[in-house]
Amino acid sequence: MIDDADIPRLAVHVSRCCEWDGEDICAVFLEALTDANFHTLRGQLEEHIKEYLEKENLAYQRGNVL
Predict the structure, then answer these.
(1) Structural domain harbouring 53
(2) Domains: count for the chain
(3) pTM of structure
(4) In degrees rounded to 5, what are phi and psi of residue 49?
């Protein structure tokens, strides 16, 4: 199990590797859930993430930053 102190460092590493792109960070997160055999949780979260990103992109296109 990962030490609580290592979580922030791992999060920074993922963010940097993804160049601070939220969609890429979410994709890595979802893939990690799949790798850990959390398929049901991944499916539920994936739907919520897609809805959020679609809403955010639509707001951005309209000039309304969330």
Answers:
(1) 6-61
(2) 1
(3) 0.81
(4) -65, -45
